[in-house]
Amino acid sequence: MTGSALLVHHDKALNYHFHDSHPFHPIRLKLTLDLLAEARALEPSAMLASRPATDDELLQVHQPAFLEAVKALSASPPGPGWLERAEQYGLGDGDTPFFPGMHDAAAYIAGGSITAAEAVMSGRCDHALHLGGGLHHALSARAAGFCVYNDVSVAIAYVRQRYQARVLYIDTDVHHGDGVQWSFYSDPEVCTYSIHETGKYLFPGTGFVQERGEHQGYGTSVNIPLQPYTEDDSWMECFEQSIRRLVEYFKPDLIISQHGCDAHAYDPLSHMQCSMAIYDQMPAIIHSLAHKHCEGRWVAVGGGGYDIWRVVPRAWSLLWLEMTDHPLKRSLKQQPRTPLPQAWRERWKGQSSVSLPAEWLDDLTHWEGIPRRDEITAKNRESLAVALQDFPKV
């Protein structure tokens, strides 16, 4: 399984920075790019510079009044009256506070996902990765969940308008991909799939199996809500069974996948107990499906992930290694105890508040099992069965 791949990036995406103590910190991108460089897995020729999204492109998803608010609150300081109106647009003092230069940084992130999608749909490459993207919670008229502009929805709208492609969106973030789902809830040509910790306990409180789309789009919204403390085996069972059946049923022209890596046991913002294994295995499944059903057309974006030192760089690097069919990725099957580059660990250990991992994959020999494993697995299977009841087996 081969295919050309490009990694889309622009340093202006690093300006998407709420404040130094905010969990969504752009240093995640630097850590990942540096790890890939030290692993000799990222050549300059594989990098593609992104552009900012235009207002017209953003307006395919977002309301004009929201763009006006984002631009006004990006000034330092904002003009009179805007401070009082910030909360109306989800840009108050909560999860997604406004910051200087916000519009420009968020437009570059949205533009990065468009750049990746255009590179794939134009035939420039088979696969494209935009790690700065994946801001899946932003709504048409409101920021939410650390997300200002919904770059994924903007990129899907671009692909639909320019190429009339049938798009399957796969969201593996631990938080439900609500913003993308609502953007295309009645569109039969866009299927949104999300596997996540149940919204019964976790933000944004949505993503239940009953959310199936509406009108002509009924049946093109698929949610797999999993129980808290789900481990690798149950997560992967639910993911693989559901995504294979869905791709066979929907027959997309393009797969766009979001790779938040916050279902890991180390992540501070969820209750899941998964290891690096799922971030090794999920991209491989998506990769094979893209070649089988979409002539290789696959766009991947980043997303959540708040253990920025131990989890995010490894998970996102494994994604790129899969997209490029790198020998290191293949060797992990025979040598799962493969060490990370020592130079990377030495460079960053002084800044990290935790001990950096020594190996690409987690050593699970010392992990304690979850006492309710059987009950959790059974409940996840029940949710899976309900979610898949309308899709034929393959």
Concise description?
The protein has 394 residues and is an alpha/beta fold.
Describe this structure in words.
With 394 residues, the chain is of the alpha/beta class. It is globular and about 60 Å long. Helix 9 (277-293) links the parallel strand 7 (254-258) and strand 8. It has 13 helices and eight strands. The protein has helices at 27-38, 55-58, 64-73, 82-85, 102-121, 151-163, 178-183, 232-250, 277-293, 312-323, 327-334, 342-348, 373-387, and strands at 5-9, 47-49, 127-130, 167-171, 190-197, 221-226, 254-258, 298-301. The longest helix has 20 residues, at 102-121. Strands 2-1-3-8-7-4-5-6 form an eight-stranded parallel sheet, sandwiched between helices. Helix 1 (27-38) packs across helix 10, helix 5 packs across helix 6 (151-163) and helix 8 packs parallel to helix 13 (373-387). The model has no long low-confidence stretch (mean pLDDT 97).
Q: Main beta sheet, described?
A: 8 strands, parallel
Beta-strand proportion: 5-15%
Subunit organisation of the chains: single chain
The end-to-end span amounts to 21 Å
- Ranges where pLDDT stays below 50 over 5 or more residues in a row are none
Structural class: alpha/beta
List the topology elements.
Blueprint: E1 5-9, H1 27-38, E2 47-49, H2 55-58, H3 64-73, H4 82-85, H5 102-121, E3 127-130, H6 151-163, E4 167-171, H7 178-183, E5 190-197, E6 221-226, H8 232-250, E7 254-258, H9 277-293, E8 298-301, H10 312-323, H11 327-334, H12 342-348, H13 373-387
